[in-house]
Specification:
about 80 residues; mainly alpha; about 65% helix
Length: about 80
């Protein structure tokens, strides 16, 4: 059981590092403020979910869920 805890801790640290890198790779939200001023939405703005930025956002959300699940599991002290 001790090995499982060490394995989960290693996965937890890896998830933390990858999530930090993914957040740093994302564009700032201040670039999208042109819509407030009435600027026309571009092709890249309409298809953002299929772009690299959209994939980064999805991966960040998935890693956030994995992060919280691992944090809860490791805090249970079952191992």
């Amino acid at each position: 059981m001790v090995y499982l805890r060490y394995f989960l801790m290693a996965v937890f640290v890896l998830v933390c590092i990858v999530s930090v890198v993914l957040v740093l790779l994302q564009e700032g939200r201040s670039q999208g403020l042109g819509a407030i001023a009435g600027a026309a939405e571009t092709y890249w703005g309409k298809n953002k979910g299929r772009s690299m930025e959209g994939n980064l956002v999805k991966a960040t959300k998935i890693l956030a869920v994995v992060f919280f699940l691992l944090a809860i599991i490791l805090n249970l002290n079952v191992f």
